[in-house]
Specification:
Helix content is 42%, strand content 17%. It has 7 helices and 6 strands; from the N terminus they run αββαββββααααα. A 4-stranded mixed β-sheet has the order 2-1-6-5, with helices on one face. A two-stranded antiparallel ribbon has the order 3-4. A hairpin with a 6-residue loop joins strand 5 and strand 6 (93-99). The radius of gyration is 21 Å and the shape is elongated. The chain starts with 9 loop residues before the first helix and ends in a 5-residue tail after the last helix. The model is unreliable at 1-8 (pLDDT under 50).
Length: 218
């Protein structure tokens, strides 16, 4: 199954969902696993949920077309299931997915790109994920003039040297009390370049941190 999701006893999972409140449908919210960005909102019936759990690819019920459809069936921009969470009332589902290409038919990464109330979108792991995706793109498809593409072309030793330099600059800033945030961002950025170069995703680091937080890290 895509994204490493584990599905056991599909019928038992489906039976936990309350489809009665909306006459056979439940609203579902889709989140990008790597960036944390909310991609879209849709609906599922029992069969769409069964197909999603069975294939690992997201299926929805189209109220416009009156049928089940697989995300990306025409565009190729499929969504691979990573995890699913049921809300407290059992009548809505939050899915984390790996999005191939863009989500929205307009070409935007998310369907939620029309601001009603202007304000900050928030940061945290979402911003890290977005930057990481850009870094991976510069490695997979090098661009002339790209800092990441140029650094990676020089090999692992150059990346490691740069991380050492950024770590030293952060320590100097910490002792001086100025520029800490800037230098910390530089260090994080170069650490992400190393991870991408090694083919390691941010989710692996998140999982390790969560494992330690829950007391299983030794």
């Amino acid at each position: 199954m895509g994204g490493g999701a584990r599905v056991e006893g599909r019928k038992g999972l489906i039976d936990k969902v309350n489809f009665e409140k909306m006459n056979g449908l439940v609203p579902v919210v889709i989140r990008d696993f790597d960036t944390g960005e909310i991609l879209m909102q849709a609906f599922m019936d029992r069969e769409a949920l069964r197909l999603t759990l069975e294939t690992g690819l997201m299926h929805y019920w189209s109220r416009t077309k009156g049928r089940i459809w697989m995300k990306g069936e025409e565009s190729g921009n499929t969504q691979s299931l990573v995890s699913a969470r049921l809300d407290c009332d059992g009548d809505a589902i939050l899915f984390s997915v790996r999005q191939r290409g863009v989500c929205c038919h307009t070409g935007k990464s998310s369907c939620f790109h029309r601001a009603l109330v202007e304000g900050p979108e928030g940061g945290g792991t979402g911003v890290l994920g977005e930057v990481f995706q850009v870094i991976k793109g510069r490695i997979e498809a090098p661009r002339p003039g790209s800092y990441v593409s140029n650094l990676v072309s020089k090999g692992e030793d150059s990346i490691l040297k740069k991380i050492g330099e950024e770590a030293a600059e952060l320590m100097i800033s910490a002792k001086g009390g100025e520029g800490i945030v800037h230098e910390a961002a530089d260090l994080l950025f170069h650490l992400m370049i190393l991870l991408a170069f090694k083919g390691i995703g941010l989710e692996s680091v998140y999982a390790e941190l969560e494992r330690r937080r829950r007391g299983r890290g030794g």
